[in-house]
Amino acid sequence: xxxxxxxxxxxxxxxxxxxxxxxxxxxPACEVVTLGSRRLESVQAKQAEFxxxxxxxxxxxxxxNDDRIDIVSICTPxxxxxxxxxxxxxxxxxxxxxxxxxxxxxxxxxLVETSEASHVHTLVAFILRFNPLVQLQxxxxxxxxxxxxxxxxxxxxxxxxxxxxxxxxxxTGGAFILAxxxxxxxxxxxxxxxxxxxxxxxxxxxxxxxYPPVETAQVQFSNGAIGVFSCSxxxxxxxxxxxxxxxxxxxxxxxxxxxxxxxxxxxxxTLDTGVKKSGDVYDHPFPAMVSxxxxxxxxxxxxxxxxxxxVNAHLTCIAIRKSAELGRPVRIEGxxxxxx
Length: 340
Known about the structure:
- The protein has ten helices and 16 strands.
- It has 340 residues and is an alpha/beta fold.
- Strand 5, helix 5 and strand 6 form a beta-alpha-beta unit.
- Helix 4 packs parallel to helix 5 and helix 8 packs across helix 10.
- It is globular, with a radius of gyration of 20 Å.
């Protein structure tokens, strides 16, 4: 930290990197020191987009070895996240890690071990946790407004052409891992319970993706609740992150609420939290996330949205892929997946 500002670097200059860069530029305690990517043209495009006169690099080691850099955003293809996050943490950098944290089960214990041993702070880009509607839903469940929750369903639907590496199975990891992990994490975050078992199916739709772009799963939660999850990267549909939470005293369906405490309620009522559903990176709450992360670093406190907090959602997504491939249920026990 120099001159009262954290030196920030963004590694990977694709679409989502704009959200990170924009958030750092808006925070008074942050300075963008370096932008890096495999292709110099990608870095130069971001420099031009934001009018930045900062260092450009195509070598991740330049970021790891730069003492001016305190915080690193990792926005590279999915298959690189785990190893690059581990290297950054070992280099003493605070890490703002794009989802997914990993696409392989074996990498997750390594991430957790490194994050706990390196004494740096981490934040995972599960943007829906910073959505005011999700925060309200979580608070209502925690305060007992729904009573005992016995069913929690969620969907991620967003039919759009995802170019480049997102088409390829070995770089992406699967539909839920690529995108549906947002909804998986959202629903387990709302009800405050981990997922313990999945039984999944997948479907090849079209020939654009090398892997099934549609996945569904029946799931069980640690609190006894059950649910159905779905993810579709294809189809004529806008961005949708649906959530249905059913409890003994109430029901939540997205922004609609039906609660026993309101005697005589005939139908759902709707609360407008002022946040539109959007898949556009500029509509995502990156500024709020960076503000939270900076506060955690300044106060030396662990973020509740760190790497460890994201493990169950990611293991669930990997388990969904594995269950669909093998045609057998998969249990999630700690940091391990067990095929039944």
